[in-house]
Design goal:
Elements: H1 2-8, E1 10-11, E2 20-22, E3 28-30, E4 42-46, E5 63-68
Antiparallel strand pairs: 1-2, 2-3, 4-5
Length: 70
């Protein structure tokens, strides 16, 4: 599921899309920095509780790609 969220995130022109993306607030995040404090770090979150998404592939669009720690 994390890979699907990463793929949904906005790509940054001129940067490697496998490494760099923008979070929902427009902050630049680095793909390998997950769950740590810092301006390039991010973590995954759910707009809808994960338990209500069990077995519902169509609801992947409701997942937030990630949240930045800026």
């Amino acid at each position: 599921m994390r890979q699907q969220c990463w793929e949904k995130a906005e790509k940054i022109k001129g940067r490697d899309p496998e490494r760099w993306r923008r979070d929902p607030l427009g902050n630049i995040v680095f793909g390998k920095l997950v769950g740590c404090p810092g301006c390039l770090c991010h973590d995954y979150d759910h707009i809808v509780p994960y338990s209500s998404l069990q077995g519902r592939k169509k609801h992947i669009r409701k997942l937030s790609g990630f949240t930045g720690y800026s």
